[in-house]
Amino acid sequence: MKLQRAHVLVSVDPETVMAGAKEVEERLIKEIESRGLSDEIKVLETGTLGISGKGVVLVVYPEGIYYENVKPDDVPKIVEEHLLKGRPVKELMLPELPVRAVKRETVGLTRKQVRIVLENAGVIDPENIEEYIAVGGYEALEKALTSMKPEEVIEEVKKSGLRGRGGAGFPTGLKWEFTRKAEGDIKYVICNADEGEPGTFKDRLILEGDPHKLLEGMMLCAYAIGARKGYIYIRGEYALSIKRMQKAIDDAYKYGLLGEDILGTGFSFDIEIKKGAGAYVCGEETALIESLEGKRGQPRFKPPYPVTHGLWQKPTVVNNVETLANVPSIIKNGAEWYKKFGTEKSTGTKVYTILGHVKYPGLIEVEMGTPLREIIFSYGGGIKNGKKFKAALVGGAAGVFLPDRLLDVKMDFDNLKEYKAVLGSGAILVMNEDACMVDMLFSIIRFFYHESCGKCTPCRIGTRELLELIKKVRKGEGEESDLDKMIKISESMWKSSFCPLGQSLIMPVKSAIENFREEFVKHLDKEFHCENCRR
Amino acid sequence: MNDWVTIYIDGKEIKARKGDNLLKVARENGIDIPGLCFLEKITPTGACRLCVVKIEGRPGMIPSCLVAVEDGMKVIAFDEELEETRKILLNMILSEHNDDCINCDKDGDCELQDLAYKYGLGIESRIFSPIWKDIPQVKDESSPVLIYDSSKCIKCARCVKACYEIQAKGVLNFAQRGINEYVVAGLGVWADSECDGCGECVQACPVGAIAEKPVYGMRIRKKDVDRRVVTTCPYCGVGCQLELWIKDNKIVKVKGADKIPNYGKTCVKGRFGLDFVNREDRLKKPLIRKEGKFVEVEWDEALNYVAKRLKEIKEKYGPDAIAGLASAKCTNEENFVFQKFMRAVIGTNNVDHCARLCHASTVAGLARAFGSGAMTNSIEELEYADVILVTGSNTTETHPVIATLIKRAVLFHRAKLIVVDPRKIDLVKYATLWLQQKNGTDVAWINGMMHVIIKEGLYDEGFIRERTEGFNEFKKIIEQYTPERVEEITGIPKHKIIEAARIYGRAQKASIVYAMGITQHTTGTDNVLSLANLAMLTGNVGRESTGVNPLRGQNNVQGACDLGSLPNVYPGYQKVNDPQIEEKFEKAWGVKLSDKPGLTVVEMMYAATEGKIKAFYFMGENPMVSDPNIPHVKEALESVEFLVCQDIFMTETTQFADVILPAASFAEKYGTFTNTERRILWVEKAIDPPGEAKPDWIIIRDLAKKMGYEMKYTSIKDIIDEINRLSPIYAGITYERIMRGERLQWPCPDPSHPGTKYLHKDKFSRGLGKFHPVDYIPPAEWPEDEYPFLLSTGRILYHFHTGSMTRRTNVLPKYVEGPYMEMHPEDMKRLGIEDGDEVKVTSRRGFIKIKAIASDRVSLGSVFIPFHFAEAAANVLTNDALDPIAKIPELKVAACKIEKI
User: Fold this and answer.
1) How far is Cα B336 from Cα B342, in angstroms, rounded to an integer?
2) Assuming Cys at both sites, which of A12, B466, B622, B831 could form a disulfide with B651, CB separation 3.0 to 4.6 Å?
3) Which residues of A touch B (CB under 8 A)?
4) pLDDT tens, B152-201?
C-alpha cells in the first residue's frame, strides 16, 4: 500500500449521487492533480457514510473531518484550504459529528459513538481488501482457523452475549451451537441482507463500507458450524452493496480467503450472492430461505427451525448483517472485551438509523442500553427548527410509537420489552409536534397491506380491513368504535398470523391509538391539523 | 414413528401415533376442529388459521394442522378466545369470498358454506364488508374443463399443492401477493399452460373457486344427483377407481374415488372423458345387413341368424374356419364366456385379442424368464424405489396416474430416474439420465448396461447363484457388448451407458417400467428377456419396489389374457395342448375340446386372405384402426363370408359386418377388470344400457343357447364361481370377497389367501429364474434411400386407442382434435415443410395425408404419429412383420417417406 498523507472518502450512494457526488469526486481529482498533490492525497469512493439529507458528504482522514452539502464549486476551497494548508473549511463542516471508534482516535468532535461494527466504514477503501487487512482484517479468521476449535469459536460467541441484530435478539452463539449439533453433513450460512424495513439502512453501511468485515463474520460462522457454503441474500435495490460485496468476494478468493483449503488449514468455504426481489416478507428468515430456493417468498412454519431444517432442509444459520459484522471483533478481542460494552443481557453496541425531524438524521453506533432520549437529543441533535418533540417510532415500521413520557427507556432487548416495544431494525423515526399520528399510522398500515404475502388469512385480509378503517378515520368519516375495531383486528392478527409480519402490526396500531387517542378522536370530528388528512 | 402416545384434547384422552398430525387425530376422534386449507394428501399449509388451538407449554395459538402429536400433549381445541378468533377469521374469509351460493356448483358441498352455517355468519351478521368486490377479480375460463374465479378463491393453496404434490405437475401457483393474490396456471393463462386437465385442483378446492365446466352437458350440484357409484375406469390399465355421479340415467360428473390403486387421482380422460356413454349414437338395437344396408331387427332374429350362419360355416369348413377376437375393454367374465364360447361351442382355439398387439412379447418373455407373464410388482411400490428405469413407455400420456408416482418418487423421495426412449418424452424432465437410443436397438443397450455391471462387479452374485440358471452362457454373449460397440449400434454415448449401469447397478431397490416401446418389435420377446436378465443380474426381482413392470395398455388387457382370450392357453395360462388341462376343461364344460393352439391376430388376417378363415366374431375390437397394415386388414375383412361385430358404437370395422350386436358399456354392467398390477377391480353398474343394448356376456350366453350349448349363468357371480374353480391363480378371488370391497391381486390360490403384492418372492414361478442369452438383431425394416424416415407410433394423453370412445367426448377433442405427425424442425426446413402443413407419408404398405407439426420430441430423421385417428391412420403405414415367438407386429419401427403436398 502506497503511503499517502491524506485520504478523502466520498460517499457514493443513490442519495449522494443524486446530489452530485460523482461531479464532486471528479472535481476533487482534478483539483488535486492541478496542484500536484496526486501522490500525497488519495480520493476514494465509499458507501453511505450514514448521514442522510445532507447532500454530498465527504470525510477527510486522518483528521476524520466530515463535510456536508458539498457542491463542485466548494471543492477548490476544500483542496486549497484543508488539503494544502491544513485549515478545515468550517462553514462546510458537519457541526457536531459522530465518530469515535473504539480503537480509532478521531479529533475535534464532542459526541462520542462506540464503533465496533462500523469501525472501518467510511475509513478504509471498501473495494480494497489490502486496506481491510491493514487495519487488522482477517486476523480473527486466522486466529480461529489456526488456534481455535469450532466449538471454541461458538463458546466465545456464546460468552460474548451477542444477540441477533435482525430484531428478535436470539443469542447468536446458541443458534450456532444448535446448527453445529444438528444432524447432517451439509450445512449453510445465510446472511440476511434483505434490508427492507422503511427508514432503515444500517446494513447497507456495512455492505457498502466494510464488506470484508461481513465476509469474515460469515467465514467464522461457517467454520464454527461446519458449513461449506454461504449465501448473502441482498435486497435487490442495493445495487452498490451487491457490487461491493461481489468485489470483496472476488478479492477474498484471490487472496485464498475463500474457496478450498483456506489459509492452508483445510477449511473450505464458498459464498454466493442472491438478490432479493423486493418483498418485505423475505426479511423473515424462512421466507428468505424459500425465496433462496427459488420458490415464492412465503414463510414456513416453525418448528422445525432453520437450525435443523433450513435451506434445502439442511441445518442453516440465518444471521443479520450487523450480527455477523460483530463477530470478527469478538473473536479477535475476546468475549470479555466485548462484554464491556452494553448491558449485562444486551452486550455490545447497536447501530441505529435516526430519521425524521431531528437535526442530524443518519446512522450511529452506540452501546446497548443508551437511553432513547440521549439518542434522539444528543446524537440526533434534537428536534430541528425549534419545534417540540411529539413521538418516536422505535424499531421500524412494526415498531412502537413512544411519546415524550416514555423516552427514558434504555435501548436494549429487555428494557424495551417492558415498554411493549422492540429494538427491531434499529430505526428511530422522530416526529415533531406538527406530525399527524393518524397519517403516520395510515402509512404504516398501507405498507403492511402492500407487503403482506397473502399466505394466511389474518394478515392478508386483516391488513386490508385495517386499511379500510384507517382510511375512514383519516377522512374523519369513522366512528370511535372503529378505533377499537382496529385494535381488535390487530389483536387477532397478533394471535393467529403465520409470521411476524402479521403478528407485529399490533405494535404500531395499539401504541398509536392508545398513546395518541385524542388525536384520532379529533380526526373523527374532522379536526385535521395536517394537510395530508385534510385532503 | 409407530410409537403410540397419549394426548389430551379438551380433557379427552386420545391414543395416537407419535408424529401424527394433530388436526387429523382430533377429527378422527370426533373433535371437529374447523379448517379449510387442510387436506390429508398434501402437506399442511397453515394458511387459513381456523384450526388454531392452544397447547400447554407453548405460547399463543398454534394451527393444529402444523403440529405433530407428542406424548402427554395437552390441547385446548375449544374455548371462548379460540372460538372468537375463529369467528373473526371466518368473517375475514367471508369478506373476500363471493358467496353467491345460490348460483354455485358447490352449493351444499362447500366447506366454507358449512362453516359459515355452523358459526351462524349470515350476510347480516358479518363484521366486515364484502371486500371481494373491491379487489381485482380474475376469471380464467380458457381451460376446456374448468373455470377459475378469484372472487370465490379463499387462497387455501389446496389446488396449488394438489397439482404439485399429488399429481407432481406443479402447473399452478399464486400470482401477485397479499389481498391481490390469485391462482394462475403456468405463466397466467390456463389454456396456454402445461395443465393437462386432470382436474385434481377441482377435486381439491374446498369452495367453488375452481369449478368444472359442464363437460357432461349440464351444471350439477352434489345434491342434484340421484346416486353416486364407485366403479373402475374403462380407459388404461391403471384401473383407477372412479365415483360416477348419476342423474336421470346419465353420467353427469366424475370424481376420483379414494381407493387403491389411484387414491382419488384420475387423468383427464377418466374425469372428463366418460360422456361417450351418454351419446345418442350408441348402438341400441341389433342390426343385420340386408341388401347392403343395415336394418334394425329384434334380438331373437339377430341371434338366430348368427347361430345359423356360424353353424353352417362350422359344418362346411370345420371349426377352425372361425376366429374370434375377444376384448381387452370387456370384463373378465365376458372374456371368460367369450373364449369358452369359441372353444366349447365353436370348437376352435382361434381366439385372441389386442393384447397380441401390445404385450404378447411380455407374456412370452416373462413367462420364459420368470414363469409368469405379468407386472411383477405393484403400482404403489414404484414411489419408493431408489432407481426407476423407464423405457419404451411414455408413462405421462399412456398411464398418467402411474406417471405421478414416478414423478413423486423423483420429487419427494429422491429416486433416480433413468429414461431410455428415442423421444424426448415428458418424463425426461424428471430424469437423472436420458438415453436416446435408435428405435429397435433395445437389446444392444440393455446388454451394454449389463456388460458394465458385470465388468464393474455390480451384479448380485448370491442372487444369481441361488435363484437363477443359465448365467454362464448368458455372460458369454454379454462380453461382446462393450460400451463402444453399443454406442455404435444404439447411438447412445458410451459414458451414458456406463453411468446408467452404475446408477441401476448400485441401487438397493430398482424398478424397471416398460411398455410398447419394448414389446412392439420383431425382437419384442428378446427385449423383454433382456430386461428380465438385467433385473435378475442385479437381484432386483422378488422384492418390494423392484421388478420388471410392463404397463398394460387397456383397462382389462391383463384380465383378457388371464381369462384365456389367447389362442394357446385356457384361463389362468393353462396350455391348450396339455392333456391334463384339456381333460379338466372338457369335464367342466362337457364337450370335446381342441388341443391345437389357435391363430393369433395378425395370423388370422393372413389366414382370412388365404381363404382359411371364413368367419370372424369380434367382441369390442376395431382392427381397422388398431392393427398394423390396415390395407391388408381391409382385404381380410372383405374376404370372409361372415363377420359379427359386438360393440357399443359403429366403428371403422363394423362397416364390414354382416351383423352388429349392441353391447352395454362399462357403466351399464357388473363385472371385474384386472388392472396392470394383477389387481381384480369391481365394475359396478351405474346406469341402464341404452335401447336394447346388453352386456356382452348375456349376448354370448344367449347365442350359445341358440347354438345348442347351455351356459347356465344367471349373474356375474355364477361366472366368477366357475373362474374360481377352473383358474388356480383366480381361485381365491371369490365374488363374496370382491363384494366385501377387497381388491385382490392374483395369484390368489384360495379364499383365505391375501393376494400377491409382488411376484417371485423367494422363488420364481418357474422355480429358478432363467437367463437367456440374447443377441441384437436389427428391426425388420430400416430407413434407406426410398423410405428415409423412421416412423414410430403410439398413444397420446387425450385419446385412447382407436378413438371410438375419446373422439365421442365433448372435451377431449378440444385438446387434440385430429391426426398429426411430430417431425423435427430441421427435417421440416430441409423439405420445405411449414409447421401445420399437410404432407403425404408413404410406406411400403400404403400412404396417408397428415398435418406435420414441428417438435423436438422426435430426433432428426424420425417421425411420430399417434394411431388413434382413422382418417389418417398410422397403421396404414406400419409393418406387420412379426416377432417369431410372440407374433407381435413391429408397430414401433417402419420406414417411410415424406412429401410436401
Assistant:
1) 10
2) B622
3) 279, 296, 301, 449-458, 460-465, 468, 485, 488-489, 492, 495-498
4) 999 999 999 999 999 999 999 999 999 999 999 999 999 999 999 999 99
| Confidence at residue A104, expressed as pLDDT on a 0 to 100 scale | 36
Residue B2's pLDDT is what?
63
Proportion of chain B above pLDDT 90, given as a percent: 93
Classify the C-alpha dihedral B679-B680-B684-B685 as positive or negative. Answer: positive
For residue B52, list chain A residues with Cβ-Cβ distance below 8 A: 495-496
User: Are the CB atoms for B858 and B864 separated by under 8 Å?
Assistant: yes
Chain A nearest C-alpha distance from B82 (Å):
10
Instruction: Let me know: does A235 contact A277? Beta carbons within 8 Å.
Output: no
Name the grid cell of A191: 446472511
Q: Do A495 and B61 touch (CB under 8 A)?
A: yes
pLDDT in tens, B423-454: 999 999 999 999 999 999 999 999 999 999 99
Mutate to test the interface with A, among B33, B45, B49, B161 (most CBs of A within 10 A): B49
Model pLDDT, residue B551:
95
Distance between CA atoms of residues B616 and B613, nearest Å? 8
Q: Provide Rg for chain A, Cα atoms.
A: 24
The 8-class DSSP code of residue B751 comes to T
User: What string of DSSP letters covers B278-321?
Assistant: G-TTS--S-EEEETTEEEE--HHHHHHHHHHHHHHHHHHH-GGG
Instruction: Give the Cβ contact number of residue B597 at 10 Å.
Output: 15
- Residue A522 burial (C-beta neighbours within 10 Å; 0-12, 13-18, 19+): middle
CA distance to A181, B356, B394, B657, per residue, from B634 (Å): 75, 18, 30, 12
Q: Which residues of B touch A478 (CB under 8 A)?
A: none
pLDDT tops 70 at residue A107: no
Q: Which residues of B686-713 are buried (b: 16+ CB within 10 A; e: fewer)?
A: bbebbeebbbbbbbbbbbbebbebebeb
Are residues A452 and B95, on separate chains, in Cβ contact within 8 Å? Answer: no
- Cα–Cα distance for residue pair B696/B702, rounded to 1 Å: 10
| Cα A102 versus chain centre, distance | 19
pLDDT tens digits for range A173-193: 999 999 999 999 999 999 999
Q: Of A296, A301, A495, which has the smallest distance from its Cβ to B85's Cβ? A: A495
Q: Please answer yes or no on whether A279 and B177 come within 8 Å at the CB atom.
A: yes
The answer to whether residue B624 scores a pLDDT higher than 60 is: yes
* Residue whose C-alpha is closest to residue B21's, from B56, B61, B51, B59: B51
Selection from B453, B667, B675 nearest residue B557 by Cα = B675
How many whole angstroms separate alpha carbon B412 and alpha carbon B403? 14
Alpha carbons within 13 A on the beta-carbon side of A474: 21
Global pTM?
Answer: 0.90
Q: Which three cell numbers stand for residue B725?
A: 374353480
Complex-level ipTM: 0.86
* H or E segment and range at residue B369: helix B360-369
In this structure, is the dihedral angle defined by the CA atoms of residues B202, B208, B211 and B213, taken in order, positive or negative? Answer: positive
Kindly state the cell numbers that stand for B562. 388371464
What percent of chain B lies above the pLDDT cut of 70?
100
* Nearest residue in chain B measured CA to CA from A489: B88
- The DSSP output letter for A527 is -
Question: If DSSP codes are grouped into helix, strand and coil, which group holds residue A350?
Answer: strand
Query: What angle (nearest 5°) sits at the alpha carbon of residue A338, between those of residues A334 and A340?
Result: 125
Distance from CA of B66 to the nearest CA of A (A): 7
Q: Is the four-CA dihedral B753, B754, B758, B761 of positive or negative sign?
A: negative
Nearest-Cα distance to chain B for A479, in Å, is 15
pLDDT, one tens digit per residue, over B374-408 is: 899 999 999 999 999 999 999 999 999 999 999 99
Residue A106 has what pLDDT?
36
Measured CA distances, B287 to B283, B292, B306, B619 (Å): 9, 12, 11, 15
